[in-house]
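Batch 3, record 17
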Amino acid sequence: MNITIIGTGSMGQALSSLVAKGGHDVQLLGSADQGTEATGDVVVLAVPYPALREIVEQRGASLAGRIVVDITNPVDFATFDSLVVPADSSAAAELAAALPESHVLKAFNTTFGSTLTSGAVGDVPTTVLIAGDDSTAKATLADVVTAGGLQAVDAGSLSRARELESIAFLQMTLAAAEKISWSGGLALVS
Amino acid sequence: MNITIIGTGSMGQALSSLVAKGGHDVQLLGSADQGTEATGDVVVLAVPYPALREIVEQRGASLAGRIVVDITNPVDFATFDSLVVPADSSAAAELAAALPESHVLKAFNTTFGSTLTSGAVGDVPTTVLIAGDDSTAKATLADVVTAGGLQAVDAGSLSRARELESIAFLQMTLAAAEKISWSGGLALVS
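Prediction for the assembled complex:
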């Protein structure tokens, strides 16, 4: 499979390694590649939340029919006390509304970059929680995750993205307050 | 210290054991004890969310000046698809508004009962996340938790109860869907 990753920051790089490890082809697109078409069957938007709007404007039409993965955490970094999306919504719900022809999934937002790379949160294997309304799309992404050596768990419908974004937000506040490290976090124990 | 636990279900029993293990006195009150005054310095409401309203009506005035711990998860059990509190609120925020003279904390809602008793989520020591606006109250409860052999982490202001309730809700949906067991969950790794 061909996976496009838009974003070359630490998460984009960690995701590129994960995908490549599973034997898939990676197309990594950075900010200088705005004119390059995303060719992946799966397109991962490994960008900060505020960048989603521009990607939708530039690439929205071309993403129709494809699996689009939102990894963002819409944290209000000015206050670090709330998210910037409405309380009854999520970044993923907003993205799905903006890309009605795409299969939007929420994933990778609850795993710090280092835990994607190391494959573990402390001694617990890293689990990627995946939320979305299309079961086939979720299974496709889960296969990519497990091929790369991590665990994947279906976290339910796309409405569960709200909880996934809450988990990540709390995890980030705990790391910022030095209650945990950026290689720790909330690990899923089965 | 004297700790009152209202509620004799599995969580009330697990919390009684935890508190007693730390050498504190436990007053355990069940539904037949509505006429008995809660005497604890800390009063833990180990009841389902819908029971909070009645406790506030019956005991609200007597809880003034005391530490009151909300452990509830206000899940809509009819749909298992949302919480019954407004999206921008939490059970703990509602309780704090109803008990303005008490020091309301959110705690124990992210730990399944079995992990309170066993002291571990899988191989990870059980951590009790505590949110609240009164630092002294949080430190008092943290001491009770650590005396009982568990870890305690200050999760921030009472507004973080929203995230703690989201974490617990997702955890419950995963257990109900048999993606994890009721002795697993999201374990905090430092």
